[in-house]
């Protein structure tokens, strides 16, 4: 029925995106991601944590724009370590890092970060699409369809505008 058609359209779109961005894997060692307790953070003021995390996100975005995905991952990781309470910012940091990992061909790391992004923001369509495309690259097609279903539940039209 219509649900099958939606799934097929989504899967076709995701396969197209995945194939267009395919690269050979480049392994980036993940830094220790143990997040600090806010009490032990240098400055536990939430506004300062958010501003610092957002600054790291901006630095990561600049590195990403230059094609320096390894440094982008570093900056996004530092932003994540700020452990601020703003769920939207946390989701963006994880999704941006997922995208940088994907660009390097680190699809398992990309999937892990997409999962973390939607834990913070379950309707974040970019993270849902990133999770689906990572699953396609990992040849986990049933899981990719599950991600597609999540995306379709958020926005059918939005999937095609990513």
TrEMBL record:
Pfam families to which the protein is assigned, alphabetical: TPR_2
Region of interest called Disordered, as start-end residue ranges on this chain: 25-47
Alphabetized SUPFAM superfamilies for the sequence: TPR-like
TPR repeat ranges, renumbered to this chain: 53-86, 91-124
UniProt keyword Repeat, yes or no: yes
GO cellular component, one term: cytosol
Gene Ontology MF terms in the entry: Hsp70 protein binding; Hsp90 protein binding
Coiled-coil spans in chain: none
GO biological process, one term: protein folding
Keywords: Repeat, TPR repeat
PROSITE patterns: TPR
InterPro entries assigned: TPR-like_helical_dom_sf, TPR_2, TPR_rpt
Protein name as annotated: Uncharacterized protein
Lineage, highest ranks first: Eukaryota, Metazoa, Cnidaria, Anthozoa, Hexacorallia
């Amino acid at each position: 029925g219509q649900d099958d058609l939606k799934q097929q359209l989504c899967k076709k779109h995701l396969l197209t995106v995945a194939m267009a961005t395919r690269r050979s894997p480049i392994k980036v060692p993940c830094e220790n991601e143990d997040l600090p307790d806010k009490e032990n953070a240098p400055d536990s003021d939430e506004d300062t944590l958010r501003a610092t995390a957002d600054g790291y996100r901006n630095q990561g975005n600049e590195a990403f724009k230059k094609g320096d995905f390894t440094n982008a991952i570093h900056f996004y990781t530092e932003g994540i370590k700020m452990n601020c309470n703003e769920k939207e910012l946390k989701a963006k940091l994880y999704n941006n890092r997922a995208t940088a990992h994907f660009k390097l061909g680190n699809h398992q790391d990309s999937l892990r970060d997409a999962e973390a992004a939607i834990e913070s923001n379950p309707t974040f369509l970019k993270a849902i699409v990133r999770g689906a495309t990572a699953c396609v690259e990992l040849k986990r097609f049933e899981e990719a369809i599950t991600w597609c279903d999540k995306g379709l539940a958020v926005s059918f039209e939005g999937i095609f505008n990513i």
